[in-house]
Amino acid sequence: MTDHKRRRVLAAATMALACLAGGAEAAQCGNSAGGFEAWKREFADEARGRASAASLAALQGTSYSTATISADRGQKSFRLSLEQFLAKRGATTIVSRGRALKQQNAALFASIQQRYGVPPGPLLAIWGMETGFGAVRGNVNTLSAVATLAYDCRRSAYFTDQLYAALTLVDRGVLSAGTRGAAHGEVGHTQFLPKNVLTYGTGGDLNNVGTALTSTANFLKGHGWQAGAGYQPGEANFAAIQGWNAASVYQRAIALMGRQIDGE
Asked: What domains sit in the chain, N to C, each tagged with a CATH number?
């Protein structure tokens, strides 16, 4: 084969590979509602074989969630000082109510601590912070929220994983096309994202208090919680609390309120 012919063959092969690569590109993310419907079709094409026809049909029924995007862009409270953050979140009320709930549900918390090693304080602090002890669990369509964030370019890869988890949960009957929760796709009393439901959920509906609290304890144990160790900054279990939320002020608030609820 002459050099000229060899170059022609290599050029053709390179072009063919480029075409194949182009066909395998991920669904195109976007920063406005305009491309969302096209993205859903592209995502469904990619997901066939990994997600069921029924769950992908549920995905096609989703809509671009402006409430989700607004919430995602407006998380300003995490920039506050610890004192400001505690005041804004109503820490005094959370601690007071948390202590009462600890007494009212003593058997449940004793069972959780025996099984997972997690005392009541941090669980109650998380429950109070996330939903006001179940009072505010959100009213945004869960699949629409997760799909919107998977499409949105800011954290597309992270929420694409969450979307695949959500589709799995649809197949298992844990989520449905009508499930509603918080603006980022969190569900239940302590606000689990879909992937955490799959990994740490202890079975059942996270809108059930017992299931939500045992699942939260399982999450903390899965992030290295050690029975009997401390959970303040610098102590062994603070790393598990850090796994719950990436914001430093949130982590410190959970540790502080948890200690106050536990009476330490």
From this structure: 29-71+140-181 (no CATH), 81-138+185-261 (1.10.530.10)
